[in-house]
Amino acid sequence: MRKEDKNTLISNLADTLNAYPHFYVVNIEGLNAEVTTKLRKACYEKEVKLIVVKNTIFKKALEKNGVEHAELDAALKGNTAIMFANTGNLPAKLIKDFPGDGVPALKGAYVEQSFYIGANQLDVLVAIKSKEELVGDIIALLQSPVKNVLSALQGSGNTIHGILETLSNK
To answer: Among 17, 23, 40, which Cα is nearest to 110's?
Structure first.
């Protein structure tokens, strides 16, 4: 491959890194064409971008973007595919639910400005909540006390009215 082509690949990969806040380094070695097509389709449906890339080119793209990747170097060995996503836990759920014999396998990930190295981190990554899920949880928590107060007032309204009526009669 010519140097100009490599530089173009590195620039394109660096642009993709800028476009997505989260990425997963995945081993897809041993997947046949049919299963790879199914994986690509599943990624497309979940709005996850899947790119097969050489480790050295990916390292250079990380360097170009100023990402310190020393923690990730152990994961950048062998065949590598990168999954880019806007939602941090989406690729983890896709990897976990994908039917296969441990493939695709998580090598490492960069989610919520932290590195997660090793396949044993998959459950941790699945449990990470997205921004939308956190906002929904906060709204539910904020609404909960208001609903409790309103239901208490509505339920005890008859009781309070009865007490006031009894007192006024005496």
So the answer is: 23
Q: Which domain holds residue 70?
A: 3-128
Q: Which residues contact 115 (CB under 8 A, 6 or more apart)?
A: 71, 72, 108, 109
For residue 103, give the nearest of 31, 24, 23 by alpha carbon.
31
Residue 35 maps to which CATH number?
3.30.70.1730
78-128 confidence digits (pLDDT tens):
888 999 998 888 888 888 888 766 678 888 888 888 888 888 888 888 888
Rounded CA gap, 40 and 9, in Å?
20
Find all residues with CB under 8 Å of 98, minimum gap 6, and list them. Answer: 39, 42, 104
pTM beyond 0.85: the answer is no
Phi, psi for residue 79 in degrees, rounded to 5: -70, 135
Say whether both 87 and 137 belong to one domain: no
Instruction: Report pLDDT for 102.
Output: 65
> Which one, of 149, 135, 140, 81, lies nearest residue 109 by Cα?
81
pLDDT in the model for residue 150: 59
Dihedral over Cα of 158, 159, 162, 167: its sign: negative
